[in-house]
Amino acid sequence: MDLLRYIASKKETWEEDPLNKIDVLGYVWLSYFDFRPVQERFPLAWDAFKNDPFFDNLEKRHETFVPKSCATLFRNMIASPRYQKTVMVDYQHIIDSDQDVQFGALALSAGGKTIVIFEGTDLSFVGWKEDCIMSYSDSVPSYPLAEAFIKRTLEKTEGPVILAGHSKGGNIAAYCLATLEDDSRIESVYSFEGPGFHSDNVFSAHPERMEKLHKYIPYSSVVGVLLCNETNVSIVKSGSVGVLQHNTFKWRIQGNDFEYANKRSLSSLYIDKAVNGWLKCLDEDERKRFIEITFNTLNKTKVKDFKGLAKTLFKEIPTMRQAYKEMGDNDKTFFASAIKSLFSSAGKAFVDVAKEAPKSRTKLRAKNDKKALPSKPPKVGA
Fold first, then answer.
1. Is 373's pLDDT higher than 60?
2. What is the dihedral of CA 100, 275, 224, 105, to 10 degrees?
3. Which of 256, 282, 323, 347 has the fewest CB within 10 Å, making it most exposed?
């Protein structure tokens, strides 16, 4: 079963079957919608929201790579007896290229709990640049915004609180768990393939809080293994392949839980070793310099996001080539050297992972001989 089938088939009320992690994952995808047109009406109960004009052209209100799936998900949740008592409590959306910030947060009341969801990376250049800042900084512009949003939500609500997010949103949720002054109301934090942190010391002040953090990555994880320094990570099976497994709509579900794998794929191990190995070759200043050069080049184009770039890539190549020519000699030399070290890291990672291939194939055959799923999700270091 996948997420859409779960949402469509789940009819039990909260009293009959309490809120679980799969319900939270469904809610997480709502954070990518732009709720600003209805924000002034919050708190807004779903039973008064079903026939709202907001649902006209719902796909166009979504800000990521799966708008149709998310529109279907939202409509199914609105129509479901399980989710009909949901109330949207608060919302915030900020995107500012000058401050390198792309932030979204949605607070919901459901199942007797408050769920605070942080938006992951949208398709904008600024959103991706903020992601990249995580590679050299202990803080990104979204962090203080998220902390302020949680504080505001705690003041408006009572009872247990769940923090959650997909991709960058999962990283933000985990960061807030580590840094909140008081986490007594935080029941659980769910990070669905959120990347890790630049520093290993994020939870150093409150290591006991990591017990509340539940991180899930797919079998062929790409994003969730970047800068990964968490040890409590569960590997989920997916019906998709490669980087497309970042789309949690294809993650496998059984009952009220995921289906789990015992080991990451070789492609995930390769990306992990190649990218994280490359980052170790660059110091913080070099990472920042590389990112600035890359996004300065992208911002020379006539588009502002990767969706637009994909549509006009061939037209924009001369512009990007000209931007490269206009770089100073020092920047050109540095950029070329950084790219060379990336290829070197990729080559070394290929050799290292190739040594793992025979062992992985043996384990895979052994695993396929056992039809029963693990009774508990395996916890492994990513």
1. no
2. 0
3. 347
